[in-house]
From TrEMBL:
Protein keywords: Oxidoreductase
Keyword Oxidoreductase recorded: yes
InterPro entries: Aminoacid_DH-like_N_sf, Glu/Leu/Phe/Val/Trp_DH, Glu/Leu/Phe/Val/Trp_DH_C, Glu/Leu/Phe/Val/Trp_DH_dimer, Glu/Leu/Phe/Val_DH_AS, Glu_DH, NAD(P)-bd_dom_sf, NAD_bind_Glu_DH
Entry-linked Gene3D superfamilies: Leucine Dehydrogenase, chain A, domain 1, NAD(P)-binding Rossmann-like Domain
Lineage: superkingdom: Bacteria
Family annotation (CDD domains): NAD_bind_1_Glu_DH
Pfam family, one: ELFV_dehydrog_N
Protein's organism: Lentisphaera profundi
Domain Glutamate/phenylalanine/leucine/valine/L-tryptophan dehydrogenase C-terminal: 184-414
Similarity-based family: Belongs to the Glu/Leu/Phe/Val dehydrogenases family.
Name of the protein this chain belongs to: Glutamate dehydrogenase
């Protein structure tokens, strides 16, 4: 069993007991409703035919249509997307969205392919999925290795193969599209900004001045870079960033705007301002106030947790801390704002995009971000208050809150037949 799925199931089982979730509901939720695996051929630029394996896991839809990202990455596998799909179910429930949870992806390395090949792979995958996605059934979004352009291709393929005469009503089949083709302003920065909104609320509760705090960030993709930009605008000091090539450390603060432009052009931190990069191990042992892991899952285990010298960890990525690491960090008194809360900004703003598509409306960016703030801060306080009331971690509180919401819906609706 993939470690991410095992980690999620372990916490899910513990939270189900504490929340007193019925045995029937526990049985339903511990496995996804649908596990879709497709193998599809794509002709490469060279004329060679290659076979790709794609996944779509639809975990639960009691609250509404399945919702979750698509990732293009060589490590995509069945158990990984099963774990991520369950996290999406909990995340949507926690922040009060009328969505269920799903996740999907294709197992391959995007950087090994041309833009033309990426388009063909994306379109062929959507065609292979057929009616397994749809604006009222299952709504994909971008994730690791995918972006707004990927979503544009997915939407266009779905519209042109749906057979519907009213195709404009189908734009909401995916979210995270570029604004010109039906996306929403604020979506690109939503996950990173949402994580920082949680940090700001934490700082208020502890009477901290965020501009006097130091931050270290693992991963400088969409989530990490936008979180860094937001922190920079608040006057906070980001002193280290880690990516696949190493760790950039500047004790007086990294010039985030310059770094963002550099990484956009060069693909990594390597060579930025001729700085010598440190190791991954040095990153996790670095002393700072806050760490934001915003890369892959299972990045913080026993060794990283023992080395950690921070006060707060905010999970920008899904499942970045395994259960052993989580236990060690808790014993050390390091507070954690869990992924199902901290990185929920992306799906919250995806919901706003879906609403705009359904009504053929466009919202101003400030309106989107205000509504994002309202939703994520409400969820933050519900999790915080429950953690205090039950004397449990925020992760446990988030799972319990999400599970209770789902349990109540099942109780009121009943189970067919």
């Amino acid at each position: 069993m993939d470690e991410l799925f095992k980690n999620v199931i372990t916490i899910f089982n513990e939270a189900s007991k504490t929340a007193d979730i019925s045995t029937s509901i526990h049985t339903i939720l511990k496995q996804p409703k649908n596990e879709i695996i497709v193998n599809f051929p794509v002709r490469m630029d060279s004329g060679e035919m290659k076979l790709f394996k794609g996944y779509r896991i639809q975990h639960n839809n009691i609250l509404g249509p399945y919702k979750g990202g698509f990732r293009f990455h060589p490590q995509v596998n069945l158990d990984e997307v099963k774990g991520l799909a369950m996290l999406m179910t909990l995340k949507c429930s926690l922040v009060g969205l009328p969505f269920g949870g799903a996740k999907g992806g294709i197992k391959f390395t995007p950087k090994d392919h041309s833009q033309a090949e990426l388009e063909k792979i994306t379109r062929r995958f959507v065609h292979a999925l057929g009616n397994n996605i749809g604006p009222n059934f299952d709504i994909p979004a971008p994730d690791m290795g995918t972006n707004a352009q990927t979503m544009n291709w997915m939407m266009d393929t779905f519209l042109n193969t749906s057979g519907s005469l009213d195709r404009q009503c189908l734009k909401g089949v995916v979210t995270g599209k570029s604004v010109k083709v039906g996306g929403t302003k604020g979506r690109a920065q939503a996950t990173g900004y949402g994580a920082v909104m949680c940090i700001e609320e934490w700082a208020k509760q502890h009477n901290h001045d965020i501009s006097q705090k130091t931050f270290i960030i693992q991963g400088f993709g969409n989530v990490g870079s936008w979180a860094a930009k937001r922190l920079d605008s608040l006057g906070a000091k980001v002193i280290a960033v880690n990516d696949c090539v190493g760790t950039l450390h500047m004790k007086d603060g990294i010039p985030i705007r310059q770094l963002s432009e550099y990484v956009q052009e060069n693909g990594s931190l390597e060579g930025f301002m001729d700085q010598e990069l440190l190791t991954r191990e040095e990153f996790f042992a670095m002393k700072a106030d806050v760490m934001i892991p915003a890369a892959l899952e299972n990045q913080i285990g026993k060794d990283e947790a023992n080395a950690a010298q921070v006060t707060l960890i905010v999970e920008g990525a899904n499942g970045p801390i395994n259960n052993e690491g989580d236990k060690i960090l808790t014993e050390k008194g390091i507070e954690i704002i869990p992924d199902v809360l901290a990185n929920s900004g992306g799906v919250i703003v995806s919901y706003f995009e879906w609403l705009q598509n359904r009504s053929n409306d466009y919202w101003h960016e400030h309106h989107v971000l205000e509504k994002l703030h309202d939703k994520i801060i409400q969820a933050y306080h519900e999790v915080h208050d429950l953690s205090i009331e039950l004397n449990i971690s925020k992760r446990q509180a988030a799972y319990i809150k999400a599970l209770k919401n789902i349990d109540e819906v099942y109780t009121e609706r009943g189970i067919f037949p």
